[in-house]
Structures are given as structure tokens and as C-alpha cells.
Amino acid sequence: MDKNNNEKLSVLFICLGNICRSPAANAVMQYLVEERGCANQYVIDSAGIGNWHVGQLPDKRMREYGRLRGYNINHIARQFDARKDFELFDKIVVMDEENYRNITSQAPNDLAQEKVVRMADFFTQHPSATCVPDPYYGDAEDFNLALDLIEDGCEGILKTFST
Q1: 61 has catalytic annotation
Q2: 110 catalytic per annotation
Q3: Interval 54-61 mean pLDDT
């Protein structure tokens, strides 16, 4: 694996608008690495494919459901920047197939394209799940399912890439 940032693994989480799933993954992953005392080994960020919510806090429902689990989901939304993000990040973790197709289509070369992985690739507790569904138009059950899957995926990422 190619490392940068002084041997830190840099991980970028991607969803459609950067207000539900990817900022939640950012917060969950940050919480897990801090809890385990390995935060100094990671650079964690998130971004959205679209620019609809740039500069905004995450959806208030995701912030609230995350807070109930002990997470501070407060990332300010930004849009994915292929010119910078493929260079800066070792792994670009997408939430669903639409995200995967969009981000891989922006890759400048095969090496960059190989950095893009699906969150579902890291699920261990939800082996039949194929993505983290977008809860934006859903209810509490949808937000909690998204958080369950994100927690599972982040645990899997840590197990896979622990240094």
C-alpha cells in the first residue's frame, strides 16, 4: 500500500452530498481510532459527489442519531476534487455503487482507480449488505441502519489496514 502523510493511512469517505453517510463515517472512524489510541496513524476526511451542500453541517437527523451513539458528526460538507483527492488519499471509500461509478470515472489512471473501494467490502456483521443506503428520505430506522453499516465497515477498515 502506498502511504503518505508521514506513514499515516489517509482515508476519504464519499457519499452523494456529504451530509449523511460520509460525514457519519468520518466521525465513526475518527472515534474508533481515538478510542484505540491510533489516531496518529490515520488522516480521515469525507466529501460529496455533488456541490449542493458545500459549507453546511451534516443533516440534523444524522447528527442527532450519531450523538445518541456517542459520535460528534460535525464535518463541514465539501465536494470531491479529483485533482487533489486522488493525490492526497490512500483509500477512497464509497457508500454505494452509484458513488463507485462516479468516483472511478474521475480517476486519472489505473493506480488512482485502485484506491476506490466500497464500504461494503469491509462489512463483517452485515455480510449480505451491498452498500450503505442513503437515509436522507427515510426515517429513524434508515438512519440507524446506515450507522450500523458504517460502524461495521469502519471496524473492517481498521482490521484490514491496522499498522
Answers
A1: no
A2: no
A3: 98
C-alpha span between 85 and 22 (Å, rounded)? 15
What span, in angstroms and rounded, lies between the C-alpha atoms of 82 and 129? 28
- CA torsion sign for 108, 29, 75, 62 is positive
Is the Cβ–Cβ distance between 18 and 47 less than 8 Å?
A: yes
Distances (CA, A) of 8 to 11, 145, 158: 9, 30, 13
User: Residue 106: which residues within 8 A CB-CB, separation 6 or more?
Assistant: 80, 82, 86
DSSP codes of every residue in 42-57: EEEEEEESSSTTTTPP
Look-up of cell digits 465536494: 79
Q: Which three cell numbers stand for residue 64?
A: 442527532
State the catalytic residue, choosing from 118, 134, 152, 154: 134
Kindly report, residue by residue over 67-126, the tens digit of the pLDDT. 999 999 999 999 999 999 999 999 999 999 999 999 999 999 999 999 999 999 999 999
User: Does 134 participate in catalysis according to the annotation?
Assistant: yes
Cβ–Cβ under 8 Å, residues 3 and 89? no
Q: How far apart are CA 138 and CA 61, in angstroms?
A: 10
Q: How far apart are CA 58 and CA 130, in angstroms?
A: 24
Which one of the listed residues 21, 63, 78, 118 is annotated catalytic? 21
